[in-house]
Every structure is written in C-alpha cells, then in structure tokens.
Amino acid sequence: MLVVFGLLAVAAFSFVVLAPPPAVTTPLKSGVVSEAAEPATTLVDTEAPWNDAQRAQARTDSQEILADILALQKELTTQTVTEWAPDRFETALAMAATGDEYYKAQNFQAAITAYRNSLSELENIRALIPDVIASKLATAQAAVREGKADLARQLYQSVLLLEANNILALTGLDRVATLNEVVEKVQSAKRYETRFKTTDAIVDLQQAEQFYAEALALDARFQRAISGQAAVQALIRDKQFRDAMGDGFTALFANQFSRARAGFSAALKLRPDDPVAKSAYQQALASDTRSSLASMLQAAKQFERREQWSNAVSNYQAVLQRDPNQVAAKLGLIRAGARAELSASIDAALQDPLALSRDAPMQRAQAILADARAVKNPGPQLRAQIARLDKAIQAVDVTIKVALTSDSATRVTLTKTGASSLELGAFARKNLALKPGRYELTGVRLGYQDVRREIELRPTDDDIQTFAIACTKPVGALSTASGD
After folding, report:
1. Which N-terminal residues, if any, form the signal peptide (predicted)?
2. 464, 440 in Cβ contact below 8 A?
3. What is the pLDDT of residues 316-353, one digit of tens each?
4. In what order do the strands lie in the sheet with 411-416?
5. Which residues contact residue 317 at a Cβ distance below 8 angstroms, ignoring those fewer than 6 apart?
6. 480, HSE (Cβ side, Cα atoms, 13 Å)
7. Cα dihedral 298, 304, 308, 312 sign
C-alpha cells in the first residue's frame, strides 16, 4: 500500500505540473447582428483568468499538504507504525489515495479535503506515540518481572525507535543484559527452598539466601529476588527459633539448666514477645537458680572443710546475691568470714616475726593466738598456724648474747626500733644480752664521718653474735674526694 501511495503521489505531481489545464469553451454573448455580418457560428477557446488562478492555488495547496503527508508517512514508518496502528495507518493512506484520484481529475478542492483528512489522521496516529510508549514500557517491565529477557529487550528497543533517548528504555536494556543470569540464580534459590521442605536443614535455606543475594547484586530491583530473599530470611529465623527452643527443652528435661536457659534466651532474641519462650525461660531460670544455689552452697561447705575460707566467703556471698533470704548462706558467711579473718590475722603476724619484739605487735599476736585456741574442732591448717604463731611469740621472749667491737675512740649508741636509745660510749669490746628484734648502731667521732649500721637479732645456734662499728673515714678525706 505504501508503494502504491508513493506512485500515486508522484503521478499526481507530474500530472499537475506537466498537463496543460483543460480548455474551457464559453459561447459569445448574443447581440444584434447586421445583415452584412457573418453568421455567429464560430466558438472561441478562452480561459478565465480567475479560474486559472484558483486552480493554480488549489494545486499549490494540494502539493503542500501532500508533502506534509509524505514526511509524516516516512516518520511513522520509521517508528514501526504498522506494528502498533496498522489499521488506522492503512485508512490514512487510503484517504491520501482518494485525494490522488481527485487530483488527477483536477477536482482540487475534493483532493485537498481528502489530503487534509489523511494528514489529520496521520497526526492523530502520531499523537498516540506517548500512549504506545507507556504501553510498551509497561509490557516490558512485566516481561522483566516474569524473567522474559528476549521479549523485554524487543519492547525496549521498539520504544527507542519511538523515542531515542527514553531513559526507562535505556535503563531497562541495562537490566535485561543480566536478566537471564538473575533468573537462573532465583531458580537455584527456589530449588534449595523446595529441598528444605524435605530436609529441614538450615543449610539449604542459607544456600537459597546466598543465591538471592547474588541475584540482587546483579539487579537490586528484581522483585522475585527481593520477595524471595525476605521469605527465606523469615524461614531462617523461624528455623533458628525452633532449634533454639528444641535445645532449651532438651537441656531442661536433662536438668542442664544453664544450657536450657541459654537456648530459651537465644529463642527470645529472635522472638522477644513469644509467650512460650518467655515461660520456658522463666522455668529454666528458676530451675537453674535453685540448682546453682544448691551447688554453690555445697561448694562453700567443701571450702570450709578444706579451710579455704576466702573461697567459702565468696560462694556464700554469691548465693546471697541471688537469694538474700538464704539462711544457710547467711550463717555460713558469718562462720567463714570469722575464720577467714582469723587466718589472715595469723598470717599477717607471722609475716614479720621480729615485729613481735615490740609491745603492741606482741599484744596483738597474743590476742590472736588466744582466739585461735578458742576455736572448737580446729582443722589441720589452723592447728599448724597456732603452732607457728606460738613458736614466733616464744622466739622473741629469749635473750641473745651480742658482742660489739669498736676502736675505743668512737662513741656508740644502740637504738631498738620502736624503743628509746642506749648510749654505750667508746669501747673496744662490749658484751650485751638483747631481745630479738631490729636495732640500729650509730657511731660518732670528732673529725670523722658518722657511721650507722642496722642489725637484726634472731635466735640462732651461735652462742654469741658479734658486730663491729667504728668511724674510720676522716672528714677531710670526703672534702678532698669532693674537690677532686
């Protein structure tokens, strides 16, 4: 039909340009004729100027409209009009062909009318393009959702023929480029979902989730992957919840209360408001508390029997933190606390036996020893502590023979830590009987540097302990050394 229309248009144009206008025969006006005149029998061929001008204008108008028709026909043909408006396009061309017939018959007004009708219809067809684009885009998007890559590609390409820079079509083609791969990954995910229904293995759901994630990495808007991933993630949470509850009940029935509580706690993290999980957790907590308290009380008593008083105190305190009304723990804490304090006091006194040579530490040690001896049924550890403390007290209640030697020129002073000083004067040798303890010897001599010496007296197997003290370095020697 397009070829016919083109040939008709060319023929019409040639006819108008090349064919001479038809002759118009007009009779002369009647009038009075003289006798000598020839008979009025001759017709004169003439063309009225007005009619000629009208025909010329009509031809021009026809040609201009026809040129618009041809341009619009070419544009619509390029835009594949025969795919989306074939009948209306055929009708418009038929109108133009009718105009051609009128044109050849030199019925220019009728030709113009037919041409205008054809042009109007073609313009109406062109006005359909936005709706056609919208329809094609909608169909293409539906094809993408259904995973029909070839169909979607064809539709997007046809849209670009209608509108070369259509953004939706361009971006749609980008999505279509990976659509087949996306669909394959979604199908793989679906297979693992189906498999999970048989295996009930969470690993199948995790594999499905992975495939959905890979699909969305290729196309983040692919709805089947979005909804599929959300559904699988919900199934994973449900599976994890069921597994956690199962572990909790299994442990609870086996009296493994801490493990049961851990299982129900994990379930509550997934479903914080689940009433069954809440109730089971409270049951496990109560059972665990009772079991734990009993275990801690038993352990505390074991520590008492082993005389590990600090550990016993810690256990009783832990019990009371969980249940402040535990009478056994209260009594145990008092008992273990007193023994722990007594044991620590004995150890502190034994840490520095020489300090017992002073009155205050000695009095404290004697009081501690009395308290320790008052304990009924002391254990081996306390008995050993009592023996060591008693020995330490007795050890400082002896005298030790001491010999001090000097140069008979140094004036010596003896000071016991925590007591007054004793001036011994100058001597070559002096024998003393002293109590165990810490002492300080000080020597002073005119023109010599003072000397100081600390000594500790402890009971030994020696009959006498000898210490020397004398000022031997002149003061001038220090000055000379400093000047050098």
Report:
1. 1-19
2. no
3. 898 898 889 889 999 999 999 999 999 999 999 888 88
4. 421-426, 411-416, 437-444, 451-457
5. 333
6. 5
7. positive
